[in-house]
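Continuing the series of single-chain predictions for the mutant panel. This is the parent chain; the variants come on the following pages.
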Amino acid sequence: MVALFAAGCVTDGENDSILVLAAASMTDALVEIGDAYEAESGVNVTFSFGGSNALARQVEFGAPADAVIFAGSGPMDQLEASGDVVAGSRDDLLSNRLVVIGGMGASALSELAGLDELDGRIALADPALAPAGFYAKQSLESVGLYERFESRLIPTLDVRAAVGAVDTGGASFGLVYATDASANSGVEVLLVVSEDLHDRIVYPAAVVEGSGRGDAAAEFLDFLGEDRSLVIFETYGFEVPGG
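Parent structure:
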């Protein structure tokens, strides 16, 4: 189930509101940027956050949306192939890092030397639902550990849920994005996973084909690429172009 957030108050008129489906890992940053955009433009931005693969399937099944922002190339490649996003509107906004987290103070470990030191239950976003889980699976496969750990993996709906599993003690470790780790005071980063072990983590955005508010959606996506928005993204730990 995805969560709905509205940035600011709703304005009157269909053309004064857009719906953006976005990766759960972007929640805090996008809500803040959405508030700033509404204050400037008068256009209300409503977000629906969740696992990127699941959101892409919603668009393919005809769910109403004006723009999409995913955590990974795969879901956007899928929508481009199916013609569900406007040709030429795709833009890679940001990147991120994959990290291993543990519960704050729950372990004597202050860091891990490698993925082979993971024990107990390991939370990750379900690879079928969210790219964060795909990157985590890729990393474990790259070092020959996925089959060894498979019975101890806890797949969750999205990366935020994986962080929550570690925070509440449901898992000893988690493989999550650095941004989500920094957003939760109940977990700590024990290892930054080498980028050589997985595909590059990118956040592509695009306008949904046939939304009826394509111009407004495109203007919002342009706003996300402006310096003032990129500063906010950096504050939440995202890597920005040229940063």
